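Field reference: sequence -> structure
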Amino acid sequence: MYEPIRTKSVHSTAADSGEFPHRSREEELDIQLAGHLAALLAVTDELRHLTPGDDLDEAAEALAAQVARLRGGLMPVRASVAAAIHEPGLDALHQRAHALAGRALVVAASRADTAAAILAAQRMEAHALVAA
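Structure field:
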């Protein structure tokens, strides 16, 4: 009465066939952490443009080094910051940097990456002091 199934089910996953490369949890966390730190680096570069200082220069270099380490030695692309028509306020940039550092801290903690966690915590503290 019923015809036998001759093809694979549409509900079978591609994971079963081995067609796609898969990343481990650690690799996914590395990618996520590198993304958060790269975003924090971009905001730090914006802050350096608006208020130059040694602290921000050192933080930017440390962030770039961490991103490069997580990306297997590939240095992050850093664009020069052009003055926009409506420059964002310093408080808003510090709040954004604080939030990004918090996200990086959470991922670094779950990844057990001490160096990145310390750097993220330091950046959170620095931006919290300025934004407050």
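Note: The chain is about 65% helix and 0% strand.
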